[in-house]
Amino acid sequence: MKFKRFLWLGLALCLIFPQTYASAEGNSKDNKPAEQVVEENYHTVLNSWEKKGTGDASEFEASVSPSDFKIKDKKNLLSESESKGYNDRVFYWHNRDSVSYEVNVEEAGLYELAFDYYPLSNEVVPIEGAIQVNGNYPFYESRRIVFPADWKNEKNTFEKDRFDNDMIPKQKRIERWNTLTAEDASQLQSEPLRYELKKGSNTIQLTNLSGEMLLGKAYVKSPSKLPSYKDYAKKHENAKLAKTMITREAEKDYEKNSSYIRPFAADDSSAIPSSPKNLLLNTLGSESWKDSGQTVNWNVNVKKDGFYKLTFKVLQNKETGGPVFRKLLIDGKVPFQETSPVTFPFNKNWDNVTLEDEGGKAYLFYLSKGKHQIGLEADAAPVEPILHTTNKVMREMEELTLEIRKLTGNQTDTSRGWKISEYIPGIDKKLAGWADELEQELKYLRKLDNSKEDSKDMVSLEMAVQKLRALSKKPDQIPSRLTELSEGSSSAAQLLGNMLVTLPEQPLTIDRFYVHGDEKDVPDAEAGFWEKLIDSIQRFFLSFFSENYSASEAEEDTLEVWVNRPRQYVELLQNLSDQNFTPETGIKVKFSIMPEEQKLILASASNKQPDIALGISSWLPYELSIRGAAVDLHQFEDFEKFSKQFSPGAFLPLMIGDSVYAMPETQDFFVQFYRKDILQALGLPVPDTWDDVKSILPELQRFGMNYYTHIAGATGFKPFQATAPFVYQFDGDLYGKDGMKTAIGTEESLKGIQFMAELNTIYSMPLQVPNFYNHFRYSTLPIGTANFTTYTQLTAAAPEIAGWWDIAPHPGVKKEDGTVERWATGSGQSAMIFKGTKSKEDSWELLKWWLSEDTQTEFATNLQMLYGPEYMWNTSNLEAFKNLPWPEQHKKTILKQWEYLYEVPKNPGSYMIERELSNIWNRIVFDGVNPRSAVDDSVVAIDREIKRKMEEFGYVKDGKMVKPYPIPTIEQVKSWAGDENEKETK
For residues 179 and 115, is the Cβ–Cβ distance under 8 A? Predict the structure, then answer.
């Protein structure tokens, strides 16, 4: 009987969830793996062209004027007078508009596509487009083509801050026409992209993804080849070697194609200039110049025609070791094959690298008299084959892991034996084959790097090979050893994943370079022994007197502000204050880097606290306020009016009763991320409710994909960010009315908790995902809920899918009236005033200035422009947020989600509710405990702990309530601002 029951249960489950219980051999032909839902990548397509004999077209070039473009809206075709000096009609290309044009070619083959363009926006939002040929994307990289803008420093001299240190200058976009030959946006290809055109008429379409520009002529041309050094030298065989030396400081007088390639203060006596006392911006690059494709062009004035040698004084201490690569550009072009690219080997010390051949003979570059530009472009193309193979192997690993989990029912019992090789024939050969492929790439990587020691990337690759070989010898043990294959921090997949992040990075620091004749004239790269010794002694003694944003006591008439952020944030904030706030108000301010935010409680207890703390976690003001250490901001007359600029739900964890002890400074958001390309290919809609999510799951899972919730992103402990939204969306609550008990035992709360667990127990969503960002990039989790951190990662570090992902509001629960409640948390960092402040009024004035729309907008824009897209500032000021240099549609989506921001209020025992909600989920999902039983057990533990903590803080005495503890609500916060006719909220 028991066997029959299990048999019927198994058959029922197979009928309900065929995609989960199907055998590895039972998949239908249309069950393509995730990466094949969209086009193949360029590497694969180029190889297929080579195999079928499709080669480069012979000499051909044609241009198409904007007047001949096929355009939907003729208003965007501008006149010659509006062309910014182009002397022809131009097309205003923006707002996801498309243009197409026809070109006739006499020969079928591979061609390059180029465009004249003029960037219009001063924002750091990139200008991106997509190219289709004859109605199709020929390869995935054609879905994103970047049109870079050129930048320069607003001033060529560096201004000084209050400590007499150099300040990074403001950036200015160079307004001019450029020509771009379509390239891989990741800049992993050594040459421009090639497109296959048929003989006769071809239609090419260019579609806007983001940004705006003027579009001039479009070109179709046969690919060009670089000459060899031998041919280059022969062309100038009558030139003579110049007998001169031109020295150029790298941090001065240059142009670049990224606003955030910036000068860097090398604290080193070998860098020129150098000071033991002050920070001088004496080099260029470092970590700000590591992305492939980033280019710097220096202006050089040559006084005599002739051959010159080039020597760069560099520091190449890449964290993982190994070489980095740069293309050499002279007047915007690579002079010959051997300089595409140039290798800069790993070296912990400064080094003079003269560009030379393998035999050590310096290359000679011909420069005519007059002005020239000498440039270097970061180039990761040499490691592209390794990245391609590694990506392929990792995708196949993911598929194999999914097959194994289907067969084993996700059971990893080490005492149970499996004959997995019978269900997946050839699994041992598959793993050994991966090891062979990766070993070949390891050999190639060692050829690129001639150093004696292996880099960390090589070590990761070698360890992954060893793990795969070990598993291939005992394939039947794989189900219980998945932590070695694809799961866990030391698995083969994780080692390869780490390498995929670090290997393409190309950081390089340049102090200066020399355009010269004889190498003997080039000064030594490193300072001498005695010079270094004297410098280090001076630095040691001066360190006792140097402030430089250290947390030291400020003068009596100066507000002291501790900031829990890195130096670049504090430096920018101090400069803004010195330029704007102090001149306007007369209030002096000293900003310092906070040692550790946990020390604020100790500093307050010893009366050594600052006036204001910025950038602190949202839980900390509550801990300080309940101990009487924080100023109630609600006492200020203009507080309620000022509070209207912020989301009401963000104040809840910062309150006790009607008192407010901090202001939200930054604000997180949980939205739904999705891959547009994959959802379009599968014909799936973007879910609006949880019911919609459930409806798309079968199709996703049929292709080996799934939906991600941030429950899977947490490890053993599930914080409020993962659990509380489900309670709130089902009209539940965490606290009773008087705050003395929990309300998670109510029917509404129980319904939310049960649904939260069913997402894993019934709907087979992932239980644990260490890194959603990687899975999203590799298509295995093409949709899911995540926060600001994921948004920053995808914006700054996923160029291969930029323009093909989007965000939508968090899924919610649809109510009877048709509205969708999509409540989610969103606590960021906060700002507070200490009770021991020198002046409450002055501190409040500073807090208002800092959190105002104008200051937050200026700070956010400067931060991102100077330091790059990863320095996005998620301000809590709603009006300032609208001004951020982010895509407009994304801002609208986030603002819509913030209407449902409901951060968890605090009470002395709230940590126990958070812990028990996590325990409830674990007991239901892993132990199979009935939800009602799991919740009831936790309610007892929570209520007991709340009562104990309430007694500690004087709300309960001898088991009886002395005074109630009212839990803050959104309606309460909205009443401050007098909002009326608001939509109903919790």
Answer: yes
R_g (Cα) of the chain, nearest Å: 31
Tell me whether residue 886 is in a domain: no
Alpha helices in 161-219 (DSSP H): none
- Look up residue 634 and give its DSSP letter: G
> 361 and 331 share a domain?
yes
Say yes or no to pLDDT of 18 above 70: no
Give the DSSP letter string of 221-282. Answer: EPPP-PPPHHHHHHHTTT--B---EEEEETTSSEEESSTT--EE----TTSSS--SSS----
Residue 343, burial from CB neighbour count under 10 angstroms (0-12, 13-18, 19+): middle
Tell me: the pLDDT tens digits for 233-256? 999 988 999 989 999 999 999 999
Please, what sign has the CA dihedral across residues 782, 788, 792, 793?
negative
Residue 485 pLDDT more than 50? yes
Question: In whole angstroms, what is the distance from residue 340 CA to residue 353 CA?
Answer: 16
878: in domain: no
Contact 393, 437 (CB under 8 A): yes
Structural domain includes residue 31: no
Distances (CA, A) of 619 to 205, 597, 650, 662, 830: 52, 11, 12, 10, 9
Segment 727-747, tens digit of pLDDT: 999 999 999 988 899 999 999
Contact 823, 900 (CB under 8 A): yes
Per-residue pLDDT tens digits for 213-229: 999 999 999 999 999 99
Helix or strand run (H / E) with residue 841:
helix 840-850
Are residues 781 and 851 part of one domain? Answer: no
CATH of the domain at 276: 2.60.120.260
Distance CA 335, CA 324 (A): 20
| Rounded distance between C-alpha atoms, residue 26 and residue 19, angstroms | 10
**Residue 292: beta bridge partners?**
none
**Residues 732, 633 within the same domain:** no
**Would you tell me how many other CB atoms lie within 10 Å of the CB of residue 728?**
25
Averaged confidence pLDDT in the chain = 90
Strand 783-786 versus strand 707-708 pairing type: parallel
Q: Note the pTM of the prediction, 2 decimals.
A: 0.84
The residue range of the domain holding 958 is 671-826+902-977
**Average pLDDT for 560-583:** 94
Residue 100 lies in a domain: yes
Q: Given the structure tokens 């390309």, which residue do they identify? A: 677
Asked if residues 283 and 251 have their Cβ atoms less than 8 Å apart, the reply is yes
The answer to whether the beta carbons of residues 472 and 428 sit under 8 Å apart is: yes
* pLDDT per position as a tens digit, 256-296: 999 999 999 998 999 999 999 888 999 999 989 999 999 99
pLDDT band for 464, please (50, 70, 90 cuts). very high
> Residues 405, 293: one domain?
no
Do 656 and 626 contact (CB within 8 A), yes or no?
yes
Question: What's the CA gap between 850 and 831, in Å, rounded?
Answer: 10
Q: What is the 3-state secondary structure (H, E, C) of 15-38?
A: HHCHHHHCCCCCCCCCCCCHHHCC
- Nearest alpha-carbon partner for 714 in 724, 703, 729: 724
> Residue 234: phi, psi to the nearest 5?
-65, -35
CA atoms within 13 A on the CB side of 177: 13
Residue 884 sits at the vertex; the CA angle it makes with 883 and 886, to the nearest 5 degrees, is 125
Torsion of CA 2, 6, 11, 13, to 10 degrees: 140
Domain count for the chain = 5
**Which residue carries 């007078």 as its tokens?**
81
Pairwise CA distance, residues 876 & 887, whole Å: 17
What is the token pair recorded at 112? 């390059």
Is 573 found in the same domain as 513?
Answer: no
Strands 61-64 and 200-210: unpaired
Dist CA 189 CA 380 (whole Å):
8
Q: How many residues are given for the chain?
A: 986
Report helix, strand or coil for 967: coil
Same domain, 398 and 455: yes
